Amino acid sequence: MTRFLRLIQSCKGALAVNQKVKVEYILNSKPVGIFVRVLDDKKFALGSTPTLGGCAIKKSISQPRALKKDGGPDLDVFCFYLKNDNDKSVFVIGSVVELVPE
Predict the structure, then answer these.
(1) Segments making up each domain of the chain, as ranges
(2) Assigned CATH for 3-100
(3) Could you read off the pLDDT of 64-99 as tens digits, one per residue?
(4) What is the pTM of this model?
(5) Which helix (H) or strand (E) holds 4?
(6) Bridge partners of residue 82, in order along the sequence
(7) What are the CA-CA distances from residue 33 to residues 2, 27, 90 (Å)?
(8) DSSP letters along 20-74, please?
(9) H or E element at residue 98
C-alpha cells in the first residue's frame, strides 16, 4: 500500500496540524495548482477552510505522478488547488510555506 493510500485511509484519525511544505511547481491551469513537498511525515486532513501560504485552497488533496531521480514514484508531493487564481503570485518555487488544514 502506498503512503498516499495510507494517508487517505487514515484521515479519519488525522489531526488538523499545521505543516511546513516546500513549493515544487506551479501549474498554470484553471484552477491554479500548487505542487508541494511535505517536509514532515505527519498525517493530515483538510478541514472546511484550509489555507496554503495564507491563501484559500479547495478542500481536496491530489497526488501528481511525480517521479524521484531513480524513476520511482515520489509519494511526498501533493497538489492543492487555489480558490483564487490571482493568489499564485504569493508562491515562489523553492519557498517553504505553511499548510493550515482548517
Answers:
(1) 3-100
(2) 2.40.30
(3) 888 899 999 998 999 999 999 999 999 999 999 999
(4) 0.81
(5) helix 3-9
(6) 57
(7) 22, 5, 13
(8) EEEEEEEE-SSS-EEEEEE-S-------SS-EETTEEB-S--B----B-TTSSB-
(9) strand 96-100
